[in-house]
Write a structure and sequence with these properties.
The chain is mainly β. The N and C termini lie far apart (40 Å). The protein has strands at 4-7, 10-13, 18-24, 33-39, 45-51, 58-60, 68-73, 78-83, 92-99, 112-113, 117-122. A hairpin with a 5-residue loop joins strand 4 (33-39) and strand 5.
């Protein structure tokens, strides 16, 4: 079992930065693939980024490449999403998720979810 709690969301202007954090409980955090997803009003929950248990392998959706970075600190049971050069289209509820799969980039592959944190970017 893994419990996830996101933090760091807020309301910012276009071009600003935010860092989202996801604190996980459970002694096996280091073995999970961790991901970030986002859901805008009236839209489906979309994949944003994932990081393998070792932190060596990461992937980002094309729309955030060059602006967002995903990292993890297994000693702190925490995964981060650094978001720079934010755009209004980044506005969404951001969810942290954990997967027992070796690699996972779809919502169905993740079995554990946080409650979400709102990110609002105004122009």
């Amino acid at each position: 079992q893994v419990q996830l709690v996101e933090s760091g969301g807020g309301s910012v202007q276009a071009g600003d930065s935010l860092r989202l954090s996801c604190a996980a409980s459970g002694r096996t955090f280091g073995s999970y693939t961790m991901g970030w997803f986002r859901q805008a009003p009236g839209k489906e929950r979309d994949f944003v980024a994932a990081i393998r248990w070792s932190g060596v392998r990461t992937v980002l959706v094309d729309s955030v490449k060059g602006r967002f970075t995903i990292t993890r600190d297994n000693a702190k049971n925490t995964v981060y999403l650094q978001m720079n050069s934010l755009k209004p289209e980044d506005t969404a509820v951001y969810y942290c998720a954990a997967s027992q799969n070796t690699w996972a980039v779809t919502t169905k592959a993740y079995g554990y979810w946080g409650q979400g944190t709102q990110v609002t970017v105004s122009s």
